[in-house]
Amino acid sequence: MSVLDNFDQWKDFLADRLHQGEHEGMDDHAINEIAYQIGAYLAEQVEPKNDEERLLKELWERGNEQERHVVANLMVKLVQSEGTH
Q1: What is the average pLDDT across 58-81?
Q2: What pTM was estimated for this model as a whole?
């Protein structure tokens, strides 16, 4: 089963990567830029596996670059308190 199959597992996966980056000294700007790059990759290369991912893809596709950065930043905020730490 892929972490993309279940949105809660996907959020936990992102949270774990976020905490790992923070532990390794990445600043907020670097983390948000990586989140943007992941969002761009997923929107272009990965078919959504659930309703939440479909919604995120639709928001991404309709947004301009600045709005896509907002979506990526909000995903970071969403998962900051999640994961296995």
Answers
A1: 94
A2: 0.83
